[in-house]
Structure formats: structure tokens, C-alpha cells
Amino acid sequence: MPMHTLMTTLKLFAACPLVLAVATGSRAEQPPAVPQGGTAVTTRQAAKPRATVGAYYFDGWAGTSERWKDDATWAARNPPTHLTKRMLDEFADREPIWGWRDDSLTVMERQIDLAADHGIAFFAICWYWNADPQKVAQDPKHTGLQLFLKAKNNRRLKFCLLVANHAGFLFRNADEWEKAAEGWLPYLKHPQHVTVGGKPLVIIFNPGNGDQDGFARVQDIARKAGLPGVAIAGCGSGDAKRGFTHTTHYNIVPGYASGSEPHKFAELVQAHQRAWRGTREVPYMPTLSVGWDKRPWEGDRGLGQKPGWYFPDRTPDQLAGGLESAIAWMDQHPEQTTAERIVLLYAWNEFGEGGYLAPTKGDPEGAYLKAVKHVVERK
User: Fold this and answer.
1) Domain limits of the chain?
2) Residues 238 and 244 sit within 8 Å (Cβ to Cβ)
3) Confidence grade of residue 16 (pLDDT, cut at 50, 70, 90)
């Protein structure tokens, strides 16, 4: 696929002043076009990054699917928990270059190298609460976290927790937040855990399920364990009076269940840009979706989700333009964001929802990863 300069890309976002501010600079300041050649595996980081870029990591690609158990052909595939028939039939190009399953140390180490080689500084790994510690330990969605900790090359990448406290994984009271924090301590104290202002970062998916007393107990447990506290970021909102120290987003999805309808990727980027705002008291870490198209999870051959908007025209150049604008926003509003200049990308491996950076059969050369690398590392 021929690549264009970022100037061409930025014209797609002309409705956003932030992006225009980037596009109207001198030509020498524009990032280079993303190259076609090379492979995603062999390039290496060299320049000092302009931002600390994290990518959300969702492990729906371990365990065993509970759907279509009576279908012997399906069962013989040993499908992971979130694979669907629709993904296989209509979206086979989303299959990662290592296959649909990621539950091996070899695959995790390969992912760490790919991310680190292309400007990704950390994975924000989804973590799911359950009052039964055995169920937490046995949840296949935690496979990636455990493999990351065992990986011999994990010194190349940092990690933090994204507490996925949505339906089915909600906290009921402060006692449960306290119990969860006790279980997090080995992660929070790990030398590769991301810190913000010197404190380990924990991102809360559903801030409405947060608990002021619960967060106070989280802080207390951390301090008693010798940590300076915890940076607690709410996705979408986060009041300091309720114990949040930062805000961010997981993603922003216009038309989530508004009927199947194609839209421009530029609209998705602009929806994120409009949400970038923070304060000195509660800094914001800008988020950008690298794609959104959850059709593989819709309907009877998916996960039964309702149809919604999708954004099928994404390109590496458009992703580069969106990431440029996030960096420009941090340049223009340093008082509203973190000193670490954190940007979160949705996502590394949300293959079912269309938000993925990981190389796939449809993108075996890692063009989207290369786009991230060239933006983050350009001088």
C-alpha cells in the first residue's frame, strides 16, 4: 500500500484546531512518511521518545470458548474465549501472525519485542475482580498478565493494570477494593510497573463503580507496603474528592449500538480529541483509538452484541496523524497532563472490536506499529 506524508493525513482532520496547529508548521518539522519496507520484528528504538505510549492489552485469546459446544468442528479448533464464528468467516484477516491463541510464553515474548521495537513503552493489562480469589487466579483473561511477568524479556516493556470493573466484574463495597489491593501488591511493587509521579498507576475502567473509602484503603495498603501511594486514573471522569488522581479513557465510541453504519475514521479521532482536557489537580492522559469495528462480536454468530457504527477506512497515516495531535495537545497543555507525557492507545489486541496494533494476516509487516514508531521517535 503506498504511503503518503503526514501532511496529507492531517488534512483529514482539518476540523480539529489541534491537528491544524501541527499541519501548519514548517515542512522540516513534519514527521516522515511511514516506510513500506522492512519487517515489524527487526526495527529497534533509537531516538528518545516524544511521549510515553501505552497500549491496552485485552486477553480474550486464551482459555476456551463456551459458545457452540455442540458444534464438533468448532470445538476441534480449540477456540479461545472471545473468538467467534463471524471472526473466522468474515474477518479472517484479523488473525494475529502467531495465530488466534496467545497463551504461550513464546507468543508473549514475541509481543513484548514487537511493542518495544516500535515505540510502545508499556501494556495496560486488563484485570478482572472476583470476590473468590480462586476465580481471579483461574480467569483465562489474566493469562497474558502472568505470562508477561514470566517473560525473560519483560525488562524491555513496562506494564500497569486496567481494572475492568464493568458488568460481571463490579465491586460492591470498600472491603472488596481493599481485598483487591492486597492482591495487586506484587504487581504494584514489580520493578516494571508503570509509575506516575513516582506512584504505581492503576486505571479504573468504570469510575462510577469507584468508592472513596475503597480508594482510601487502596492508598493505605500501598503505603503500608512501602509504596508512596497509588496513582488512580478514572476512564472518562474522576473526581479528586472521590479519590481519583488522574483521568483518561479506555476508548470513545460514537454510535456504539446505533445500528450498523460505516463512518470515517477521522470522526473517531475527532471524538477523542474533543475529550482531551485535564487540570493541574487531576491531570489527563490522552487516549486514541487505533480502530473500531465490533461487527465480529455482533449477532448470533458473534457474542450477541447489538450492531453499531464502525470505521473501516483507517490507515497507518491516519493513525500517525491522530497520535501527532495527541503529542501536540500535550505540548500545548503541559499543565493538564502528566510529566511523563503518557498517551494511551486502544488497543494492542482488541481484534474483536477492531482496535489493534499487533501484526495480523491483514497487516503482516506491522504498518500500524511502524506508524507509531515514526511518530514517537521522530526528532
Assistant:
1) 47-125+133-159+238-377
2) yes
3) very low
